[in-house]
Design brief:
Four Helix Bundle (Hemerythrin (Met), subunit A); 350 residues; homodimer; alpha/beta; seven-stranded mixed beta sheet; four-stranded mixed beta sheet; Rossmann fold
């Protein structure tokens, strides 16, 4: 998969540097940050220079390749010790993102096998690029599987950003929308702005605009109004982690949208690679929910919007129960109830 | 009713000056504007130093009292001429505000009756204070009627600002919360920030903080998470207009909250004076929904948060169907289904 076909470059190797577009300053500025250490990559994950589970997975894999390069170890044991330390540091950045742990496991497989330390360094870098390429290919596959689910001229609501910027490229939920749009240019997208971090207003609206896909930006409290008026035909969102029973963790507010979709008989779809599916969790109650800095809620960017000292909660994710989900689309196909069976089969590559 | 018991002073007489808190700069600045002329009051209504129909009504009545003081007339005819001119000027500030015209009528009754000009001056000032006190008394009555509905230690969600700042004082939905808190200081309030205008973050959070009522500010897409965790026991909101069948128009996002409340078996209450009930409308579909400036959505305050040129919808209100409403509380009592009967009776003063 040649990712140069896609205009949005989320993350890539440039020589021995990991380069990410700074998603915090989009859409008003388009800035790229260069990383030469795993600590810098960790900081960029934590501060949301890069976000979205698949993109975090790629960044983590690349961060481990940088860690191997930083290490002066000449023995495999020393290298393993340094890399385990880096893995621990990277793992602590975003506890809900399943792909982060998955990417660490991918790299651990390489450096836990016996071998020459320099070859291990090379293989870690190669593997990180493979993870990127595989991720784009999976997104395109998801789009192809999902596109037939949408009626002609569909008005599709999405929440947060599950786009090229949330992945290595193309996107999961926005990848589906890209694939639908390729077949039917009469579709229309509603994008929730997605407070507090405004990924919808800043990133999804920007990506859709870049692609020329018709888009209406709304605040998060408006979708109910449009559901009630019959102006939304389908919902598609991404996911940060999916339990074995099909319960889906995704950006805060996703659950609310699923309840509205159910109330109005509108199908609610989730698009995510099988790497997001965590069969070790029997249901969504076991998914840890990260609570982030209260300043994200009391501020809008750098502007304070609430009184100083006010109490705040800031859960970054919520869990949508499988009962509210019409189908989960992975690179393997379109999966429906019972998810315990369909997701397990998808994970096995059936 | 002694309004000095309440810490949030929306508008009041200080000697011969009308003092208003400047709602445009809350919560970061607490500035009070002193008015000695009806023209200054008119400018403050027009520029939204003060907002909310009841509060505007009080400001108008006080502006007329200032106009009488400004007038050097010694005959009633001359005074009437000066006051008619002031009334015309005040009416032009927000010509659609129902309470504005009503307040002018109240004052015209006084100065159109024959009498001593100095006595008229006094009576205009007294009447303006009565209008303020009556509005607060209605809010307090609503609170007293509603308070027994809430369980001990209730965790109450509210949306937008239906507080002291939207009325002459005390508030409708926030008035209910004040009354509940007076009986049970263990309650806790969740305040939706209420994009795009952020009345929840700016005004409700501030009012609750002033009163020492425990409050947690959340973004509009978070309430679903807390409903699901069983952390919300009741919802109370205000209303901009109520149809004869109990359908309630209120700030955008209210409908969404009502659907979540229904999904989780949580009672959803509306607090509003009977003057909000419009029996000429048989149901909520007849309530016109204002769409406001797209810049409110693409910006947060003065800060642009979305790409230039993106499509936007910005409905300011939505309609919550009466089926989702456990009770409507007015100054007359607690009303429930069938609302066609209970609201008609309340309007008749039964």
């Amino acid at each position: 998969m040649n990712t140069s076909n896609y205009s949005v470059k989320t993350i890539e190797w440039q020589g021995d540097e990991v380069v990410m577009i700074d998603q915090r300053v989009l859409p008003l500025e388009e800035e790229y940050i260069h990383h030469t250490t795993w600590q810098e990559v960790g900081a960029s994950i934590k501060t949301m220079v890069i976000r979205g589970a698949p993109a975090i997975g790629v960044a983590t894999a690349m961060g481990m390749a940088l860690a191997a390069r930083q290490s002066t170890a000449t023995s495999q044991d020393d290298l393993k010790r340094d890399l385990d330390e880096a893995a621990k540091g990277l793992f602590a950045t975003r506890p809900t993102a399943y792909n982060l742990g998955w990417a660490l496991e991918q790299q651990a497989k390489i450096y836990n096998e016996s071998g020459d330390v320099d070859k291990i360094r090379v293989r870690l870098k190669v593997r990180s690029q493979e993870i990127l390429d595989e991720d784009v290919a999976m997104c395109v596959a998801m789009g192809e599987h999902a596109a037939p689910l949408f009626p002609k001229g569909a008005r599709i609501l999405t929440h947060c950003n599950a786009g090229a910027l949330a992945t290595a490229g193309y996107g999961t939920a926005l990848g589906v929308i890209r694939s639908v749009f390729k077949r039917d240019p009469t579709i229309h997208v509603f994008a929730d702005e997605t407070r507090p971090f405004l990924q919808g207003a800043r990133l999804t609206a920007w990506e859709l605009q870049q692609e020329g896909i018709p888009c209406t930006l709304i605040t998060d409290n408006m979708s109910g109004y449009f559901f009630k008026k019959g102006e939304i035909d389908a919902v598609v969102v991404g996911s940060d982690r999916i339990a074995g029973n099909g319960d889906v963790a995704n950006k805060i507010g996703t659950y609310m949208v699923s309840v509205l979709a159910k109330e109005h008989g509108v199908p609610f779809y989730v698009a995510a690679p099988t790497s997001t599916v965590d069969l070790s969790l029997t249901d969504g109650s076991q998914i840890p929910i990260e609570e982030r800095d209260p300043a994200e809620v009391t501020h809008c960017g750098s502007r304070q919007i609430a009184p100083t000292g006010i109490g705040v909660r800031n859960p970054a994710f919520d869990v949508t129960p499988h009962q509210n989900i019409a189908a989960i689309i992975t690179e393997m196909g379109v999966h429906s109830e019972p998810y315990t069976e369909s997701l397990a089969a998808a994970k096995k590559g059936k």
